[in-house]
Design brief:
With 1222 residues, this protein is an alpha/beta fold. 51% of the residues lie in helices and 13% in strands. Strands 17-18-16-19-25-11-26 form a 7-stranded parallel beta sheet. Helix 6 crosses helix 15.
Length: 1222
């Protein structure tokens, strides 16, 4: 990497190899380049061979990329030394030969190699395999079910406890699944620790009252008062500062009104200090504290005598500052009732035996789960780490590995957990570890990342400046963002993040362009939606077994109606999506300075990313808003597969074929496009069945009792006796169709059968007609492909496949949607902030800044923190109440604080993705929190407060959005929404009406059903010539295969189009301005290899026709535009036209267009053949044939971009002729 210039700090990180190094590498600081260069230097200098280094990454992709970079760098060094230093070149070649056995891998791959090497130290079978996530989840659920079955059969199967008594206290009355899931999750959480059961039992001892019998001798007692001391000291400090503030404003009478609360704080501070110092007055101090709280500390506050008017001018700022310390003080002493400490400690002590019983259940679960894995000959990923940890406790194994690894490298060090840190520490020496990461970008707490490990290592390395064995180096030059973006990021996080000092803040690394130093923009959208209460959520929520048992402390602060909040969030997302689409429309085509290329160019869609905290239920709104402006976008979502409409409906179809007596799937399919029943019709069927049931009961003259019917029973009853003949006929047709599907299920293989269902139901076609149709159809094909893989790996039935999919869905096993775009595709990216980590874009729009942030709430079940310990709630079944113990409260408070810190880090990651321009967008009810700097932790905007409007570092606007409505897509483009649940007797609440507005669609033009609503451009072009209407149908797979096996003219023409579409125009012409034929040939071969072009068709192609296009003037102009980022290919569009007095949709795809500075130039490739007799007449014929098509393309472009089309051409591939159509 001799051509790369490193900064002094980067070079120091590369060259320091005689001690351990912690590199704190800020966003965009080039940490990966430094890591790779350090490894190469060590190899080149002969300090160590590549197989004597351990390089740990956190993804397989990162490991592969690092291996590739090292291989390329070594090859480069070999080439440079080939003639000047042959001996050195040979040594480097030997390193390449050792690359295959190098330890450049993930933690799990490293563990796998250690286990295989020291197999004799384990009790594993020799042929063990790694268990995939899905199989592991299934075995876990089987294991926990067996634990509960064992408990129900034998109540005392665990010595010293009653299983039923434990359930009475900690499970629901009618459903134990919640407790089962909690136990499985608790087991997974604990396994992030080495020796987790020993640690848990040690932590459980903290719940007991000390042997002295006095709770005041416990560590927890002292910790509580230490926490109280900090709260009181902070309140005293803030109150005194506020009093000085009022005095400085010449408001002494108003300032004097703070004397009483300041006095109370001072009294508390002195008493608590005595308790913490364990002085002789400690016990008396508790009484002093109790007396202080017997009278209110805070009262209403108003201006002092003669100062009322002046006070009014500063009252908002004063109130905000006072409310901050007042709320912190009140919340803490409300949470920890110090007046009842004796009782609270006794209650907590009583939970000790139930906590130990809980751990005993986990041990039994582990025993059964381990036995299942042994029977299958597998281990899971957690086993790999723990087995390796056990191996490394052996001195011999540890010595071998320590001597082998002369240098150890850990990438993304901020994301390690306690167990992984133990593994690394076991094979490391004190002077040979290179750890690189950025604690400000640790955003994987849900994967058990522990950023405090990075912080503790940093403190240890900084503690001794003369440390001979370890050093910390900060890389804080940012080589990604422009100066204005960096300045605003620093301005925000110096205020928000603890420790964001001169060592941690960003410094500009790239030389920007002064005319294009674009400031970040904050857009506050004012709406009526308000969700100011602090969000809380938890993975497991319990109500006690006894129906009257309640949480004695009441709901935790900030709990809210989640359904109402979801409605508000969706409404906000709609408003933001409209605004974001306007911003994106303004960005595209504008000039900006690209810091990476060092050139000024125009922005294209792929330069823009929209980042969301979560894409669930919201990303489609951005997609539709952008689509309404004819802007292409792609939702990058690794999860959410089962949340998509098309997969939900497809699964519902499978479920009703397997068993029709499932109400939700049956109603979903009937309501969907497959059968198209309206909610009113479905309600009528249900009502008719109920009436029939009541009538029959009256005829029997018995007691009239309503017996629940399945919706299938209601449907069958209506099919026989329904009152509306038309509806009755439709019901019978639906039942006949479902019966036909069930009959076919016995005659076809699973994957072929699912494909048959999708085609016969026409749902595959419907999915293609929805917005994002290509992606939706890809999701359905993935369902079929997974069925094929399932059939190959097990005894496949429809029922077992449905169960398999349900496990995937409920256990959140990662199954991302198939990707339909590449990095080269010119589309807007819509993705989560987590997905964007490691990426960068010229323009970044962070939306949802006003959305509610979620924090954990106190729960009744098991809670765990690897620093504090473990705890369960106290349950009093006799008095029918439960409440959280002191330890639970401390753990909850720490979890919530950790979550808040992670929210800040997520915001930091989002903002540091931007290279040239950053936008922060969100909805709030008012902007008072900005004007008065009223901070809270409820949303990103409210966390920032006045930081939203720096007055210098960013541009701030607030916009009234009360009257904004979601843009309507062309009729037919957005009406394929469905729901998988339709409650039949729901009260018509505001929430229901809002959901109904979104999910219901009533076709407004029933009289026009015989008229086509959607046409392709080709159809209209054909109508213009032949006056005939095209009738399309889905082509089955066998027909398609037969067609592709022959080289007909249509297939050849399609292949030419496909090759040109696949070619990157920036690479098609080399620096000499000549067509790069080898590149085009490689692209064509790739299409053949991937079966995009069949072998017979490929043999019939003449690639010289493709070469000719890139040697033609219009082709060269297109390539030049591509280099400037001004070319678009395969651009889909939807256009509304009036046809025969009716409004119809026209859909088409424009082959190619580009901006040449004077306007747009449109190019359409044609494979028509020319006759030799009268070429001119033939050209005129072709022009006439495609005149309407080009006219439609031109209109679509002009309406979609707002730019005029000044040139339109047909390019005839057959004779390399360009025909002007304007």
């Amino acid at each position: 990497m001799a051509d790369v210039r490193f900064t002094p700090d980067q070079q120091r990180a590369i060259d320091t190899i005689d001690k351990s190094v912690l590199v704190s590498a800020a966003a965009g600081s080039g940490k990966t380049a430094v890591l790779v260069e350090r490894i190469i230097n060590i190899i080149v200098q002969g300090k160590a061979d590549v197989d004597r280094m351990l390089v740990v990454t956190f993804t397989n992709a990162a490991a592969s990329e690092m291996r590739l970079k090292l291989t390329k760098a070594i090859n480069k060094e070999i080439k440079a030394a080939k003639t000047s230093d042959p001996e050195r070149a040979e040594k480097l070649r030997q390193q390449l030969g050792k690359m295959y056995r190098s330890y450049i891998s993930t933690v799990h791959s490293f563990c796998n190699r250690v286990i295989k090497e020291f197999f004799y130290l384990t009790d594993l079978e020799p042929n063990f395999k790694i268990c995939d996530s899905l199989k592991a989840e299934i075995m876990k659920m089987e294991a926990i079910e067996e634990v509960f079955e064992q408990g129900f059969e034998e109540d005392d199967f665990i010595e010293g406890g009653s299983f039923r008594e434990f359930l009475d206290r900690y499970s629901k009355e009618r459903d134990d699944k919640g407790l089962m899931q909690e136990l499985v999750k608790a087991y997974a959480d604990l396994r992030s620790m080495p020796d987790y059961f020993e640690w848990s039992e040690r932590m459980a001892e903290k719940l007991r009252i000390p042997e002295s019998g006095d709770y005041r001798d416990s560590d927890l007692y002292r910790e509580l008062w230490a926490d109280a001391r900090k709260v009181v000291d902070d309140a005293l400090h803030e109150a005194l500062g506020l009093q000085e503030y009022l005095i400085a404003l010449n408001l002494p009478n108003t300032a004097a009104k703070l004397d009483s609360e300041i006095g109370a704080f001072q009294t508390l501070a002195d008493a608590i200090k005595s308790i913490c110092d364990r002085g002789e007055l400690a016990k008396g101090a508790e009484e002093v504290v109790s007396k202080v709280f017997q009278n209110p500390i805070f009262g209403k506050f108003a201006g002092g005598k003669g100062e009322t008017e002046v006070y009014k001018s500063v009252s908002a700022d004063f109130k905000a500052r006072r409310d901050t310390y007042k709320n912190n003080f009140q919340n803490f002493f409300k949470e920890y009732n110090f007046a009842e400490l004796n009782t609270l400690f006794e209650e907590q002590s009583e939970t000790y035996k139930y906590t130990m019983y809980y751990l005993a259940l986990l041990k039994e679960f582990e025993r059964i789960y381990s036995a299942k894995k042994r029977d299958q000959g597998v281990i899971d990923y957690g086993d790999m780490e723990h087995i390796t940890a056990d191996i490394l406790k052996n001195e011999e194994a540890r010595k071998v590995l320590r001597e082998r690894f002369e240098f150890i490298f850990v990438d993304e060090y901020q994301d390690v957990n306690t167990l992984q840190e133990f593994l690394i520490g076991s094979v490391a020496r004190e002077d040979n570890v290179f750890k690189v990461g950025d604690v400000k970008q640790s955003i994987y707490k849900f994967r058990q990342a522990e950023p405090h490990i990075f912080e503790e290592t940093s403190r240890a390395y900084k503690k001794d400046e003369h440390n001979e064995h370890a050093i910390q180096i900060n890389l804080n030059k940012n080589f990604r963002s422009n100066g204005a973006t960096i300045d605003y990021i620093n301005y925000v996080f110096q205020d928000l993040m603890d420790g964001y000092d001169d060592d941690e803040k960003l410094y500009q690394g790239l030389t920007g362009h002064p005319e294009y130093n674009l400031k970040p923009e904050v857009h506050l959208l004012l709406t009526e939606m308000d969700d100011s209460s602090e969000g809380e959520s938890s993975d497991t929520s319990y109500t006690p077994r006894g129906s009257q048992m309640v949480d004695i402390e009441g709901p935790s602060s900030g709990e809210r109606d989640e359904s109402a909040e979801e409605i508000k969030a969706l409404s906000k997302a709609e408003i933001e999506a409209i605004h974001v689409a306007d911003i994106v429309s303004g960005i595209i085509g504008t000039e900006f300075y690209d810091g990476k290329s060092g050139k000024v160019r125009r922005a294209t869609p792929r330069d823009i990313a929209i980042l969301l905290r979560s894409t669930k239920n919201k990303s489609d709104m951005y997609y539709k808003s952008l689509m309404s402006k004819s802007i292409s976008s792609h939702i990058s979502d690794d999860g959410g597969y089962f949340d998509t409409v098309e997969v939900a409906v497809a699964m519902a179809i499978l479920k009703i074929v397997d068993n029709m007596h499932q109400d939700i799937p049956l109603i979903s399919v009937l309501r969907s496009e497959v059968f198209g029943f309206t909610p009113e019709q479905l309600a009528e069927i249900r009502a008719f069945a109920r009436e029939q049931q009541l009538a029959e009961a009256k005829e029997r003259e018995g007691e009239v009792q309503y017996q629940r019917q399945s919706y299938c029973d209601a449907l069958l009853l209506y099919s026989a006796n329904g009152s509306d003949d038309s509806l009755k006929s439709r019901v019978n047709e639906a039942l006949a169709t479902i019966e036909k599907w069930r009959a076919h299920s016995k005659m076809m293989q699973l994957d072929d059968y699912i494909w048959y269902l999708l085609e016969d139901s026409n749902y595959y076609m419907y999915a293609g007609a929805m917005y994002g149709g290509r992606q939706r159809q890809a999701n359905l094909r993935a369902l079929v492909e997974r069925a094929g893989a399932f059939r190959m790996s097990s005894i496949a039935s429809l029922s077992s496949y449905i169960s398999y999919l349900e496990v995937l869905r409920t256990k959140n096993v990662e199954m991302g949607q198939p990707s339909m775009v590449s990095e080269e595709d010119d589309v807007i990216r819509i993705m989560t902030i987590h997905k964007s980590k490691g990426l960068e874009f010229p323009f970044v729009i962070v939306a949802g800044m006003g959305n509610q942030l979620n924090y954990s709430s106190g729960i009744k079940g098991f809670q765990f923190d690897n620093e504090l310990g473990i705890a369960l709630a106290y349950v009093n079944p006799d008095e029918h109440y439960w409440r959280r113990t002191l330890m639970q409260k401390k753990i909850t408070a720490k979890i919530r604080e950790d979550e808040y810190q992670e929210q800040l880090r997520v915001l930091y990651v989002a903002m540091t993705r931007a290279r040239e321009k950053l936008y922060l967008i969100g909805c709030e009810k008012t902007e008072d929190f900005v004007l008065d700097d009223i901070r809270s932790r409820t949303s990103y905007f409210k966390i920032m407060g006045k930081l939203c409007d720096s007055g210098h570092y960013n541009e701030y606007t607030s916009t009234d959005m009360h009257e904004v409505k979601m843009p309507r897509l062309p009729r037919g483009a957005n009406n394929f929404l469905t729901t998988d649940k339709l409650p039949m007797d729901i009260e018509l609440s505001e929430e229901y009406e809002e959901v109904k507005r979104r999910l219901d669609y009533e076709y407004a033009y029933k009289d026009d059903l015989s008229t086509k609503a959607k046409y392709s451009v080709s159809e209209l072009n054909k109508e213009a010539i032949e006056e005939s209407v095209y009738r399309g149908k889905i082509e089955d797979r066998n027909t398609r295969i037969e067609r592709l096996a022959s080289a007909d003219a249509a297939s050849i023409g399609t292949a030419y189009h496909r090759i040109i579409e696949f070619v990157d125009f920036k690479k098609a012409v080399n620096e000499a301005g000549e067509c790069d034929k080898s590149y085009i040939e490689e692209r064509a071969e790739t299409l053949k290899k991937n079966s995009a072009i069949s072998e017979p068709v490929f043999k019939a192609l003449d690639l010289h026709k493709i070469y000719a296009f890139f040697e033609n003037e219009i082709g060269l102009r297109a390539c030049e535009a591509a280099q400037a980022g001004l070319l678009s290919k395969e651009k889909p569009f939807t256009l509304r036209l009036e046809r025969d007095g009716k409004s119809v949709l026209v859909q088409g795809i424009i082959d190619c267009y580009f901006n040449d500075g004077d306007g747009l130039v449109l190019v359409d490739y044609k494979s028509n053949r020319l006759r030799y007799k009268d070429r001119e007449a033939d050209i005129e014929r072709i022009k006439e044939e495609y005149r309407e098509q080009i006219g439609l393309y031109r209109r679509a472009l002009e309406e979609g971009t707002g730019l005029s089309v000044n040139g339109a051409y047909l390019y005839l591939l057959d004779k390399s002729i360009t025909i002007s159509m304007l």
